[in-house]
Specification:
The chain is mainly α. It has one domain (9-139). The chain is built from 4 helices and no strands. It has helices at 12-32, 39-63, 65-101, 109-143. The longest helix is centred in the middle third of the chain and has 37 residues, at 65-101. It is elongated. The protein starts with 11 loop residues before the first helix and ends with a helix.
Length: 144
Amino acid sequence: MAAAEPYTNQSGGVLFLLILANNLIATILILVLGVAFGIVPFFGVLSNGLVLGILWRHAAEIEGYGNAALEVFLHGVFEVPALLLTASYGLWIGMTAIRRARGRKVLPIEGQMKHALRKYVEIILPLLVLTAAIETVLVIKAVS
């Protein structure tokens, strides 16, 4: 699996932390930078879907469509919902920024950000931990 190459020399625990840190940084940026009129969440989802599609196609050519679909399914069960929830909150905050820029009366962005961050910790963070665990197992399996 080509996507696993940067992680092949890492132990399981380090690998898990690297994957988790990567996903945390990406999703937090998508959430917080939603304030920039929702541009970052939109392109975050778009680029993730594009990369996932390219990796699936590559894996399908090497391992067959069934094995590739299983890997994408296992990978996407938790990460895709986490990404979509994060982007949804980022877009929500971005829409508020757009409304405010147009002079409309809106709720304070700070309150929305606090709500979004609370939901991030309650819902998205656990999904990302599960994702990192699954990806760790898949990478270890791929390099063995």
